Amino acid sequence: MSPPQSRAAALAAPGVAIVGARGDVRTVNQEMLRFLGVARDEVIGSALAPRLSRDVFDRGQEVRELECELEPHAGPPLPVAVSTIALRDRGGSPTGWIVVLRDLREMVALRSRLVTSGRLAAVGELAAGIAHEINNPMAYVRTNLGLLRDHWESVTAELGKREASPDLQEVLAEGGELLDESLEGVERATAIVRDVRELSHAGDDLDHADVGRLLEQVLRMARPQLGAGIRVECQLAPLPPLPCVPQRLQQVLLNLVINAAQAMGGEGTLRVGTALTDERVIVRVEDDGPGIPPELLERIFDPFFTTKPVGEGTGLGLAIAHEIVRQHGGEIAVDCPADGGTRFEVRLPLPDAIA
Question: Which residues are within 8 A (CB) of 91 and not within 5 positions of it... i.e. 6 or more apart?
Answer without folding.
Answer: none
